[in-house]
């Protein structure tokens, strides 16, 4: 059995010793922050995997299942060329997995007491020697369209620890396989998957936004791109994301942040680092439509312009043509009645739209 790390270091590590266990929903090997939303389910695995669901969406926001979402936090030790992470559903295959050390929950969902899951993991050598321990705090204020993640990493080695922290996810925005890249949505420094190119015009998006850093850590790098290339960048050598995104490319994509770390040896000043970021899924709203004529009006001829708008984009709207009987035209005196309502369109057995014709009586010659 691998040894357990002792709790030490900064605020998050110290908090593990004072937080009381609170009731919380659970999945196999993890906890769920459940609320009325709009992010109504935030899944945090015991090994720092993640997943979430937004109200109005028929699917989860990242590929995968609640237990194996294609989203998570990773640690690279570039000197030893080792990568730790959660048990992956696809993409990144770290040589070593984080060892769960426990999860605590607290909060009621208010700004003063957000719903919180505190997750403690260890990164170990195959021999069992502790390399680092990480504590991740995920917190949510009910009514917000984002949740906040704070990660503290402590070097457990008797020598410096250089490498990177990664956080990335394979987008499945609004149940769509493909989406575009966007920069600075919703704010400066954000990287996003979006339904519209570069989120213009603004529609649905999901984003990672860096907030703060402290300790022996550098400013983050970001990226959006084809998901397999994104996963390939998360590597044991601590490679950083290239600060790139592809606003005009519709692809099965992912988003990610990376932070270079250079921690002093254990028990020396500078042996910890802390980072904070938010994960946002912009809210869903039902499609809206408007027509060029009032409801129930009789249209003698021509086409009726209809405008349909939806934050989930055109692919998210099911269009239905009403082929029912139109309302009758207003009755007019016989002398002035000159127009006729067009006959209703119906579907033929082949599925094509047809319009009933007007039959004329066949003339016959008289003897």
Short description, anyone?
With 367 residues, this protein is mostly beta strands. It has helices spanning 11-15, 227-233, and strands spanning 25-27, 30-34, 39-45, 50-54, 71-77, 82-85, 96-97, 99-106, 115-124, 130-140, 146-155, 161-170, 180-183, 191-194, 205-215, 221-226, 253-263, 272-281, 288-291, 306-309, 346-347, 353-354.
Quick tags:
367 residues, mainly beta, 2 helices, 3% helix, Beta-galactosidase, Chain A, domain 5, six-stranded mixed sheet, 38% strand, disordered C terminus
How many beta strands in the DSSP annotation? 22
CATH class: Mainly Beta
Which percent range describes the beta-strand content? 35-45%
CATH architecture: Distorted Sandwich
Any idea what the radius of gyration is?
29 Å
Query: Number of domains in the coordinates?
Result: 1
**Sheet/helix structural class:** mainly beta
Count, helices: 2
Mean pLDDT equals 79
Rounded to the nearest angstrom, the distance between the terminal CA atoms is 112 Å
Strand order of the largest sheet: 8-9-10-11-18-15-14-13
Query: Strand-and-helix sequence, N→C?
Result: HEEEEEEEEEEEEEEEEHEEEEEE
The helical percent reads under 10%
What assembly state would you assign to the polypeptide chains in this entry? single chain
Any idea what the shape is? globular
The description of the largest β-sheet is:
8 strands, antiparallel
Low-confidence stretches: 1-9, 17-24, 332-367
CATH topology tier name: Beta-galactosidase, Chain A, domain 5
